[in-house]
């Protein structure tokens, strides 16, 4: 199949895949230069000290547990529309509206962060929802790693088959690739990489 070249076509493809099987891989959602611009914005946020060790859970449950998750994150202002990150968030907003037209997910708001995994860092198998709170509906992960090679590791394991709990899809964190999946449905895991692994991960949420 030829990859779609317009956002309208990409969004239709994502909506179809989310309807069944519930997840979608979109290589080249961003071009190489777009990836580089977001990387530059991330480097400048890093230089300003805007990244902090990621927590697990929320509120009083929020723990920084390196054994579960050892990335560092920088939460983003979802309303930002300036610069390379703002341009990407604007596209995600278009995606949200397209999905709300095509599916009945009721996506209402967005929260997201840049995540930097140093070499050796991982994120153990988990589901993107906090216990008892089912607001996170759709996960959207954008990878920001140019020239990623298989030997670099750092794959995302997406456990796609409830009948085969150990079966997973292997997704390389190649620059420009977007992965979307229904947050409740799929357990997933980040494997350790041999080099820094940068991503912009976000969640579309239902109204609370
Ligand atoms: O970066 C990835 O591939 C997945 C990240 C993740 O699972 C998360 O932040 O919840
Ligand atoms: Fe996750």
Automatic annotation (TrEMBL):
GO MF assignments: ferrous iron binding; L-ascorbic acid binding; peptidyl-proline dioxygenase activity
Pfam annotation, one family: 2OG-FeII_Oxy_3
Any single GO BP term: cellular response to hypoxia
Source species, domain of life: Bacteria
Span of domain Fe2OG dioxygenase: 103-206
Keyword annotations: Dioxygenase, Iron, Metal-binding, Oxidoreductase, Vitamin C
Cofactor entry: L-ascorbate
Keyword Hydrolase: no
The UniProt record lists the keyword Coiled coil: no
Annotated PROSITE patterns: FE2OG_OXY
Signal peptide range in chain numbering: none
Protein name in the entry: 2OG-Fe(II) oxygenase
Species per Swiss-Prot/TrEMBL record: Candidatus Thiodictyon syntrophicum
